[in-house]
Structures are given as C-alpha cells and as structure tokens.
Amino acid sequence: MTPAAGHRRRFLPSVPPTRALFTALRFLRLRFRLLFLLCFPSGLYLLLHSSDSNSFLSRFLLVLVISSGVVLLLYHVLLFFRVLPLSATFPLLLSSIRAFSSWIRADRRTGLAVKPCDNGDLYEGELRWGKCHGSGVCYYYRSGKYEGEWIDSKCDGHGVETWNKGSRYEGQFKKGLRHGFGVYRNHTGDLYASEWLNGQSHGYGEHTSWLNGQSRYVGEFKWGLKQGIGHCHFSNGDTYAGEFFADKMHSFGVYHFVDDKCYEGSWHKGRREGLGMCSSTNGASHSGR
Q1: How many CB atoms lie within 10 A of CB 103?
Q2: Domains in the chain, ordered, with CATH?
Q3: Is pTM beyond 0.70 here?
C-alpha cells in the first residue's frame, strides 16, 4: 500500500434515518447494559445501608459517574488493543446520530400552514407530518399554480393546474402526473379532453385544434399520439375514418373529400399506399394499387 493510500481520508457513511435510529439504540443498549451491571452492586448496597434518601441519591450519582468513567475507559482500551475496529464503531455511531438528529429536526407540522419549497414554490394548505397532504394551493415560481388534492407532497386526486401563458388542465392526478380523465387547453387554443396515463393522453379522447382552421379528432390515443381507431374532420371539410399510427393515417381507412369523392383502402404514414378504391358521386370507381 502506498503512503498516499495509507493517509487517505475516511468519510462517514450515509445511513438512512430508520437504520440510524436502530444502530444508535443498539449501541446505547449495549453500553447501558454494561453500565447497569457496574452500578447494580453499588446501588443495591447503598439502598440497603442508607436511611437518608438525599444521601442515597448523592451516593448513587457518584457511583454512576464513576461507572461511566469505567465504561469509557474500557471502551478506549478495547479500541487501543484493536479488539473493536474504529471504522466499525465510532464513525458509524457519529453518522447515525447525525442522521437521526437531522430526521428529528425535519418539518413535522400537521394542519393548515404555509410552506416554502426549496425550488422557490410556495404551498398554502393542509400538512401532515410536514408534507402537503389534503387540500392546498401551490404557487409555482414564475410559472403558474396548482389547486387541488395532495398526497405525500404530490398532486393526487382532482385538481386544476394553470400556467401564466394561458394553458390550463382540470382533471385527475396521480403521484404528481395527469392520470385519469381530464381536459387540457394550451395557450394556442388546442383542446384535449381525454384519458391520461402518467402525464400523457392515453386511451379514448378528443382533440380539437384551431391551427390553420378548426379540425377535430375523436378516437384512441397512445402516449400522447393519435394511435388506433379514430375519426378526423379536417379544417378543409375532408373527413377520415380508420386507423392511425403516430398521429398519421396508417393501415386501413376511408377518406371522404369535400367534393364527394371517396378513397377506401390502405395507407402508410399519412399517404395512400397499397390496395385501394376511389369512387365519385357519378358512380365511377377505380380500384388498384
């Protein structure tokens, strides 16, 4: 081992609060057991041979101090002779005490309160053991707010989330994400009324867009994209009913043009491709690839 490795600094391990409490209690239990064994004979003798309670208390405290000194002396003697490794006892005890004390000093309030967050947000509402739990309002730092139900400091249940640019969501949340049924309107006016899963539209729903005119889609979503069976009414008057994949017409579908022409057949990534048939109002039709 090199000299540099021999003088490498030792860092205290990070111990979770529950493990820290268990370690600290086990350490104190062993020490108090030894202390009790040292104090018991002297305390019993003083109890049997002392008639004055004040005299007994003073003598017992003296015996307690002496016994504590003996315990500490024995502990350091064991360390000196390498019976107890230093790395496995004292540093672990210190880290356990520090972790447990920080856990004790943590916020444990319950009831109505105002709680500033580390990221600049501000919460007003119900707390349980220092966590946002119940009904409350969280004002986001320079961006918007959430008003609704909370569980363990996360949006959970029914709530309304608004942003300064005009976007708004009202519906169900789970563990801080949109989950369940909800309605979302962004700052451009697009409207999503659908089922949500882990923060994204997923399931059956409706999307209305006013980009280059009004268009409307009703059907299935998967992870925020139109995917599955759906019906779309475009801003120019055309309609499509069929399958979608990744926001595009894909596989099989029927497309009706505004001039009453119709195409029924295969699609690939938004384009007609494969076997299909075109027809018009005068009865003419054409099929092929």
Answers
A1: 14
A2: 13-105 (no CATH), 111-288 (2.60.450)
A3: no
